[in-house]
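2024-03-11 09:14:02 INFO queue: dequeued item EOG090X0IZW, len=164
2024-03-11 09:14:02 INFO validating residues
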Amino acid sequence: MELNMFSVFGKQLIRGISTSSCACGKRNFKKFPVYNKRGTKEFKARQAKNPHPDVPIHHYGVRPIGYKTRTGFVPVNELIPEIVVPDLTGFKLKPYVSYRVGDIVQPPMTPEELFGAVYVKKITEDFKNGKLGPDNQPLEPSPEESLTPEKAKEKILSIRSDIV
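2024-03-11 09:14:37 INFO prediction written
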């Protein structure tokens, strides 16, 4: 194709060269992807009945919940996501936390703090009620206090293995 252009200095010839293939029109589906929502109604109906193999079906990041067969689609129950929502009736907290709330910095708990959080209340109650023996051992020990060190270690290890 030749184009004749005129300039101030005279006649200039400019020749345009096309580098694209002549099949870049409607037939080259890879160059011009037409996804699910971009086609016409006729195109969508045609794709639903007999999908063209060169036109990709775009799922928008959603994982399939089954597989296709020659006759249709077979859903698999294990692939269907199950959303577990707890019952929040009577729940006092609100679902929103303001961005103006300051950061809460809490150092790791020391052994003394852990002992104070778990045992101090029971020991002070036993002391006030006179339920301590001659060696300050409890006369009526709780189930946790009556465990031997080996049993306590086994209990902690079993709890950890249940959590993990």
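2024-03-11 09:14:37 INFO annotate: The CA atoms of residues 42 and 48 lie 10 Å apart.
2024-03-11 09:14:38 INFO item closed
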